[in-house]
Structure prediction request, 176 residues.
Amino acid sequence: MTANLNSNVPKGIKPVFSVASGTVTESCISKQFLGWIAIASLVMAVCELLAVGPALAAQRPLKRFTVADDIGISQVSSEVMFSPDDRFFIVQSDRGRLELNRAESSLRVYSTKEINRLLSQPDSQEEPSPLWTITKSTYKDGPIIDNVRWLDDSSGFMFLAKTESGNDQLFLANPH
Prediction:
């Protein structure tokens, strides 16, 4: 489902209510696989650079790095949020969208089992795909998505997202 202002929200996610400010309670976050995920992130970045870098270099001449390039670079959060049952994890990123004059936040939900499978096959060219990608660009200042928390029973997660007016709206997502 696609909404205004480049807000992509998969089926199963719905706004619960809007609040002017507030905090979602913290759930337990497993750190058991944090090392694996850090390695997986590094592997994904290196694979992307190795696969895409030469092709891009061959297609166009070198160009100077600009302010627009800097704004468009995604900044990935250093915190990986595992579900309490360790079956899923969420990676959050933020970037600027010059064409919209807005910030953009994204959440990507991955299967821990799938990432472990890919890590156990070091010669594989397969790239990990998120189960879900949630992208919101609803307000001029970022981050748009904040306070991401898993439900205690791992049945879903909650997050706050900025509305056009700058208020926070609570969303509930069920990835199962």
Observations:
- The longest strand covers residues 88-97.
- The CA atoms of residues 73 and 164 lie 23 Å apart.
- The helical segments are 34-59, 67-72, 112-119.
